[in-house]
Amino acid sequence: MKVTAWYEGFGGRGLKGTVTFTAPFVTFSESDLFLAGPVVCTLDESGRMIDADGNIGVRLPATDSPDMNPTGWTYTVKENLTGVVGARTYSMVLPKDTPNNSIDLADVAPANPETPTYVAVPGPSAYEVAVAQGFEGTEAEWLDSLEGPQGAQGVQGVRGSQVFTGTADPTAALGANGDVYVQYGTTTFLGVTSTTVTQWTRGASAWTKLADVRGAAWYVNTTSTGSGTTKPGDMLLRTDTGDVWQRDASGWGAAVGNLKGPQGIPGVKGDKGDTGPAGADGAGAGTVKAVNTVSPDANGNVTLTAANVGAVPVSGGTFTGKVAIKGDGTNNVAEWQDSTNVVRTRIGPGGNLVAEATGYFNANLQIGTTSGITGGGAGVLALKNAATLPTSNPTDAAILYADGGALKVRQADGTVVTLGAGGVSSVNTKTGVVTLSAADVGALATSTKGAVNGVASLDASGDVPIAQIPNVARNTWTPQALGFQAWTMDPAAVANPTIKAAVVGRIYMGGINITENTPVNRVVVFARGWGGSTLIPAARFRAAIYREDGTKVVESAALSNVPEAGQIPGTAPGAKSNHVGAVPLTVTATTLTPGRYWAAFLFYGGTATDFYYMHVQNEAQSNPANFFLGSTAFQRSFALGTGSWGSMPPSFDQSTVEVGIDSAIMALANV
After folding, report:
1. What is the predicted pLDDT for the residue at 286?
2. Residue 238 is part of which domain span?
3. Is 671 in a helix, a strand, or coil?
4. What digits encode the pLDDT tens for the residues 378-390?
5. How would residue 124 be classed by pLDDT, with cut points 50, 70 and 90?
6. Residues 575 and 489 in one domain
7. Which of 634, 654, 650 has its CA nearest to residue 553?
8. Looking at the domain assignment, is residue 543 inside a domain?
9. Which of 108, 124, 144 is the last residue of a domain?
């Protein structure tokens, strides 16, 4: 049965606290199962009751479940609500035939005795009963007579067992010896959803699995089926073969039977179909006398050659006489392909010779005339004077041509260069193909800008970037020296004469000055005593970073798995055993630009003695961290609220904050 509840204050804010369900020790003999111990549920931020895994509501056995001993019992429900005077306790039954297997406490909790449903009938007081029984004296004397001698102190009772529920295996840190854990596991395989209820019991400081409660499931498939998500006793039917398997401890094994029967009796013969279309003509029986003057052989077959039909042999041949190839104006007139059918040289549709691969000329290359202009040379390029000089600028190219017997180049920018005219003899004493370095012209190389032993660069404002300025502080402690990016203060000189616990629901703020682009993903709180979420599962944390104008930069989710403090390897025993040290809270990764910020953390969901923090003691409103001057205040230490926060606000106004607090020591980190 699922039980739900929702608690809110009159202002609409979700209440905090616990709801405890207590039942007698119950035995299910048919399932070899014992259930015992109270079930403690907490309230989330909205006031809804959640179980130990954070699920809305809690699952409990019905009070009239079959095969249960004892019978006729009820749950005792106790409500402990923070800020509500008095803890209400009442009885509740959970019949198994409840609609939807679900009930809300608001439907079964007792009504207010002050409503007309109840009539209070005053009876005689205890003093009046005593007088009626023969007591003589005043009421005060009767009260004095009731006090007897002080009895001896009783023996401390033994801790009762508890019942936990969840969907995962119980962790080693959960519960104590004698506790019971009920695990609900749901799997879906081949369209079949199964729920397994597994009981664990804790003894000798370890959890032991007792039994799984789940009926066998049928699966249907048409191919080989794995057994990884199935249970012993499950059944498998192969609808293609009719084979049936039953899973044992090791897997499906061999088929245990077959549902497929023998072949049925042939059916009645159907009607005759329509006549199909006529087939293609067969081979002819005529006689060929000759083809292109070639007569048949003795078997009547004619064999023609390429010459018989005026064709070129596939294997190649020789043309005799003039050959004219006429293109279609669209496709290549001729192509020369390699062995992989890739075109290497072609004559295009316009008669242009195009070499798609490297072109080779073993003799001379002459352009512009068919008359010899090579001057008797061999392996030379000869250009005849251009008949028409180029007048437009080439795109992504240069034009080489001859003009007046001189070689010229028209560049893409329109500049015409005459080669060999007015050449430079040397550059900075260098001749030939000249490549100058920065040293050749008395300059520093660009690679030295912002480099080690180089020169500093300037930013858009004409200033040296802070990243290129050496750190001012040397041989001293900085946040970076201890694993942080920045901090609210150096805690080394802080004295903590008394311990200080974080106020539940209060947001603590600490000012941090950022002077360079700084990546961060953690807000770190200096804890004086934090045993971790495993020890205190109800506790929740949130962290955030705010800009100087009060708007939020980043924040964390609700953190419920925060490790204990003081456990970094090498930590001294005193700090480790007392859980003193850094507590990092994960926020969304960001890079802070130079400016003033506030780191913020919130502790909620726990109690007033769960989290202790290192602090700077102040006196009332005299907070030493809030020392500033200028046109706008910047208070380095303050708090929001006095215990009402369950999440981080998107923004705040520092003129309305509380400064009469003991400052929390915080830092930013990037891990």
Report:
1. 59
2. 169-253
3. coil
4. 888 888 898 899 9
5. low
6. yes
7. 650
8. yes
9. 108
